[in-house]
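Before anything else, study the sequence and fold tokens given here and see whether the fold suits the sequence. Record follows:
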Amino acid sequence: MNRRQFLKSGLTGVAGLTLTPLTLATRQAFAQRAATDMPNIILIMADDMGTEALECYGSLQTHTPNLDSMARNGMKFEHCYAQPLCTPSRVQIMTGQYNDRNYEGFGGLNPRETTFANLLKTAGYRTCIAGKWQLGWPGYESTELVSHFGFDESCLWNMRYGVKPGSFGGTTQGKGSRYYNPNLYVNGVQTDFAKTDYGPDVCTDFINRFIRENADAPFFVYYPMLLTHEPFHRPPIRSSGSRFHDMVHYADLLVGRILRQLEESGLSRNTLVLFTGDNGTVAGVPTLTVDGRVRGGKESMTDAGTHVPLLAQWSGVVPAGVATPTLVDFSDFLPTLVDVATGFQMQRPAIDGQSFLPQLKGEAAMEREWVFCHYNGKNTAVNGAGKAFVRDQRWKLYDNGRFYDVQNDRNENRPLNQKRLNKMSADERAQALAAREQLAAALVRIQSR
């Protein structure tokens, strides 16, 4: 299939179905469907974009009007935490399990796992994925895995064909460019594009076609974006700053296109849209913020590597303009999406996450007291290696005993050893010691489960 055929066909299905425009009466009928009656779900995940990159989180260097609008019209989470690197985050968000359970190597997702797409498809949702795949398994081709993990439609980069036994990475056949002249697989078929075609545009167009075609039934869209990962470049807009910040701005424009498509299709009131990032910004990339210059920390266990944005918009359900301190980590997305898809009962796999649907609705609920991060393969010893931590909004404890007040020491330059604890006021020291004891108990429970 070439670009001309792709654009003319309106393909969003393996059978090559063409799009049928919705009539006004049809749009009105769907707009009246109750917002909580199997609502549509769109999960957008930027690639290598920490919180500091967005205006609504304090950036003074990036223009992100559509994401800022999501924050104004919905909810902004101040404490969402991912893994420090892409594949560990993708495995965790898709399965609801911490990496010590099921992360087995970079670029791999074991076919025995159950993803949020598997569960939502079982519930009756049409499912779509577009963007970055980067998951393989020995003995499987990625086109098989996309369907196996529950996705009906796909437009993907980095399919990792030719995976050899004993490795997850495979060959580079499915890689190539993600940006200009992209190497994308549309519903499993490698598709030719022109040198000026831009991969993020193609993926967004694919999603919008899927929305239009499936507006009469509940759907789930997972959009692991191609932006803003290196190589840094100029996207197809007039430059307003550094290449990275132009890429952030373009990612924001793509989110805006999806939000407008929902409006035009009459689906805004019964669609939950979530936006997050898979890890922090590329290490060393600076952004000027209200708190000074912040540098990206991808692959670091600090806030710079793990603290990511989380915005939620769902008209009439998610209260507008709320900034919440609720703790969320990537294991929480699967149970939340399953809870959002109301009206069905199903057996869920073992998960570590906790649904944040009550918080999305503005309801009182038992909230997380801590989040956990394990940045290592599951077959590697963790205890005492400094490869795992438990934290709350302020305090953070590593498995090797390092303890930090991250609220006041974001870059973790001043571990709270006994000397520093002794310099605190009595009340502050008591608070720190109580937090350390609570986090230590949580770490023991996790590692002994």
In short: The CA atoms of residues 427 and 433 lie 10 Å apart. The first strand starts at residue 40 and ends at 46. The chain has 14 helices and 16 strands.
